[in-house]
Amino acid sequence: MSIYHLLEIEFEYNGQQQVITPILLQDENDVILIDCGYPNFIPLLEEAANRHNIPLTSITKLIVTHHDMDHIGSLAALKRTYPHIDIIAYELEAPYIEGAKKSLRLEQAEASFNTLPDEAKPGAEHFIRFLQSIEPVGVDQTVSGGEWLPWCGGIRVIHTPGHMPGHISLYQPATQTLIAADALIIEEGELAIANPQYTLDLDEAIRSVERLLDYDIEQVICYHGGIFHGDVQQALQQLIHKYRD
């Protein structure tokens, strides 16, 4: 039997209080962490996992949904601290996580720099340096869209590009739960697209939401927002219509 735990982590970033929600999946064989926060988040992850009486030493696998800094910032440090953890990522994402390709978020920041007003450039330079500082780490296993992972009751990999081309979400049929990562967020109680202005391909992001209608989803867990409370199918349809109409 599989159990999931929400690791709600509250922290301050750029002077603002934020919350992210990595997920722990657990069964008799595995403890799987999905995404791992910003750099230096191991103590926060440890504290959140301990609230569920799960030590980080028990984690066997870490699934990365995409290579944004708030999802992979502590990845290299976790692998260094707990080398037995297998890092798993979508096949398109692996070169970015491993440092073989430049971060797409870094490319985006660099490309927009010259269009910024002068007063915004120091902040942008700081952000670029921060992105450059994210430490690469080797990926132990790559997965593809539609692949079935036989862990924690079974997990279906769903390729949900848009926010990033290699973004994935994860679906657990046994619990009818979608772990959306950044394919969806919750804003004021409603499902929304994560930072549309920073989404690399907004049309593709909406098509990814449309594909989610093919799944029997009772609950959605978003990295930014936690669990969605409401009719999932209706909320997805409303989100699609917001951008299509």
Automatic annotation (TrEMBL):
One of its GO terms (molecular function) is hydrolase activity. SUPFAM superfamilies: Metallo-hydrolase/oxidoreductase (SSF56281). The keyword Chaperone does not apply. CDD domains: yflN-like_MBL-fold (cd07721). Pfam families: Lactamase_B (PF00753). It catalyses: 3',5'-cyclic UMP + H2O = UMP + H(+); 3',5'-cyclic CMP + H2O = CMP + H(+). InterPro entries: Metallo-B-lactamas, NDM-1-like, RibonucZ/Hydroxyglut_hydro. Residues 19-224 form the Metallo-beta-lactamase domain. Keywords: Hydrolase. Counteracts the endogenous Pycsar antiviral defense system. Phosphodiesterase that enables metal-dependent hydrolysis of host cyclic nucleotide Pycsar defense signals such as cCMP and cUMP. This is MBL fold hydrolase. It comes from Paenibacillus albidus.
